[in-house]
């Protein structure tokens, strides 16, 4: 990067400034900066899926059909009790091996299965090589499933908090059950749900630090690599253990995301409160 600057500018910066500019713009640091997109992508897609799963789960918990209510209760209760890291590792691995088993039933022959020396997959032709994109999508789905269970309880409670008198009045005016659900109950429940959903969102954002467990070179993995003591045989010790400095940068990043998220949810609360009775907003 320094080579792109004119010589008079390099001389004006001085040795110290030139060193830091060159150090912070080398290939590894540029890869670290690029890895922030993985965290942002996983948070946004995982958050969108969590909202979808939350709406579906809350609808199941409110269903009149007992088996559907049982499915909703099972999802919100069991998934919330499973540690994030365990589910984060289990779901992508289970999905990967399920796909490999499905493919193996069609491409593997008895001879190829007998010749295979690895316990899994059954034959080499069924091996599914996942890259960063596939792992990132699976990680986003895992985040959506886990935090969708939390969103289910938040949305379910918000739907029950809508005054029943308004729903009964809507039915008395001739609105169908679907119209009452979407035009009145779900329309007003956001006022009650958004504070809880903001907590779910921030928990999901913190969980994006687990991406490195799925072989994704994310911001946490790069911070650990860049901050570790760097020794080169040609020059000796480049720098000692600087990991705390990189972790401090990550701390600032997550604080900034938290601040922007709070501002965003405040704007959503103001938007959701429009046209809603004052006693409902309180």
From TrEMBL:
Gene3D superfamilies: MetI-like
Mode of membrane association: Multi-pass membrane protein
Matches recorded under Pfam families: BPD_transp_1
Source organism superkingdom: Bacteria
Matches recorded under InterPro entries: ABC_transp_permease_HisMQ, MetI-like, MetI-like_sf
SUPFAM superfamilies assigned to the protein according to its UniProt record, in alphabetical order: MetI-like
Location of the ABC transmembrane type-1 domain: 36-265
Subcellular location(s) per record: Cell membrane
Transmembrane domains' residue ranges: 30-56, 77-95, 135-155, 190-223, 243-261
Keywords: Membrane, Transmembrane, Transmembrane helix, Transport
Family, similarity comment: Belongs to the binding-protein-dependent transport system permease family.
UniProt protein name: ABC transporter permease
The species this protein was found in: Devosia nitrariae
Upper classification of the organism: Bacteria, Pseudomonadati, Pseudomonadota, Alphaproteobacteria, Hyphomicrobiales
């Amino acid at each position: 990067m320094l080579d792109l600057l004119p010589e008079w500018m390099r001389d004006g910066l001085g040795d110290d400034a030139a060193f830091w500019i060159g150090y912070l713009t080398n290939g590894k640091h540029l890869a670290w900066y690029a890895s922030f997109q993985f965290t942002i992508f996983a948070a946004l897609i995982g958050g969108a899926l969590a909202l979808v799963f939350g709406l579906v789960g809350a609808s199941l918990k409110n269903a009149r059909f007992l088996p559907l209510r049982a499915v909703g209760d099972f999802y919100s209760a069991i998934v919330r009790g499973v540690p994030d890291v365990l589910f984060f590792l289990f779901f992508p691995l289970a999905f990967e091996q399920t796909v490999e088993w499905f493919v193996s039933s069609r491409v593997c022959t008895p001879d190829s299965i007998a010749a295979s020396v690895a316990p899994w997959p059954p034959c080499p032709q069924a091996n599914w090589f996942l890259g960063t994109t596939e792992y990132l999508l699976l990680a986003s789905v895992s985040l959506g499933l886990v935090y969708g269970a939390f969103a289910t309880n938040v949305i379910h409670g918000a739907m029950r908090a809508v005054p029943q008198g308004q729903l009964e009045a809507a039915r008395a005016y001739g609105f169908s059950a679907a119209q009452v659900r979407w035009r009145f109950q779900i329309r007003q429940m956001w006022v009650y749900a958004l504070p809880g959903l903001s907590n779910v969102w921030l928990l999901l954002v913190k969980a994006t630090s687990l991406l490195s467990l799925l072989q994704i070179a994310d911001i946490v993995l790069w911070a650990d690599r860049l901050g570790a003591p760097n020794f080169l045989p040609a020059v000796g010790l480049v720098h000692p253990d600087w990991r705390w400095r990189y972790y401090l940068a990550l701390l600032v990043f997550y604080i900034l995301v938290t601040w922007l998220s709070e501002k965003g949810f405040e704007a959503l609360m103001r938007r959701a409160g429009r046209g809603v009775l004052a006693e409902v907003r309180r």
